[in-house]
Amino acid sequence: MTDESAALAAFRDRVGLPAIVDVHTHFMPEPVMRKVWAYFDAAGPLTGRPWPITYRDEEQVRVKTLREFGVRAFTSLVYPHKPDMAAWLNGWTAEFAARTPDCLHTATFYPEPGAAGYVREAIEAGARVFKVHIQVGGFSALDPLLEPVWATLERTGVPALIHCGSGPAPGEFTGPEPIAELLGRHPRLRLIVAHMGTPEYSEFLDLAERYPGVHLDTTMVWTDFTEADAPFPPGERDRLRRLSDRILFGSDFPNIPYPYTHALEALERLALGEKWLRAVCHDNAARLFALDR
């Protein structure tokens, strides 16, 4: 057992956690992952600080690492940045889920004429969560080509984990306003807002209070890295308690510039209690994805 695995085992013992469910991890086709890492390697000059990839390992080493960390279930978040890419990615994630039983079968989509069809096909093949990246994809959640996709997700209850906040840099279509309009049209959608909506934390907490299907993931929030540029407002801490059943742990593994343990230490130092930590790090996601059926 590595020192980090031992530290995570101690955290689980301290909190009374049976395991961890991480809703925000990335497994991609190797050429795509290499391009993502190259982007982060070049991000230093763009952001003014380096972004080292802490877990830049071969795919099966990364799977083994999560298992050694006590992660019971995780995702293979992929996202297209152009047309005619999403269906290919969905084929890869289906194959990855088939050979990796602890990975929640993940899929994605892009605003294009065939989106409604391949989203239905992915759900029929067993997809349990979709990844949407408004910033990287450069599209609006309100694109008319996505209307039948959102209708299908609302009808089936399959969650979409959506990066729609304006961090780390705003995009043309990021921010809470389009998501508020989307939810007005589809109020029963199950949306998981990535990164707690960084930096528009308060606005996305408002949406979670208004719509019972809205969840938020903790990815990178409260870590030293994020607090330096986009600190979480202390005055919102009470709402973290009130929404304790709809906050889900996410890490951004492997693309994080610090050890995995730091993400959990950042949650623990919020001092919201062991029950809150158990809900966030395991119970909420286990319920959302029916892991114990």
UniProtKB/TrEMBL annotation:
The keyword Aminoacyl-tRNA synthetase does not apply. Residues 21-290 form the Amidohydrolase-related domain. The keyword Lyase applies. It comes from the Bacteria. Pfam families: Amidohydro_2. InterPro entries: ACMSD (IPR032465), Amidohydro-rel (IPR006680), Metal_Hydrolase (IPR032466). Keywords: Lyase. This is Amidohydrolase family protein. It comes from Nocardia thailandica.
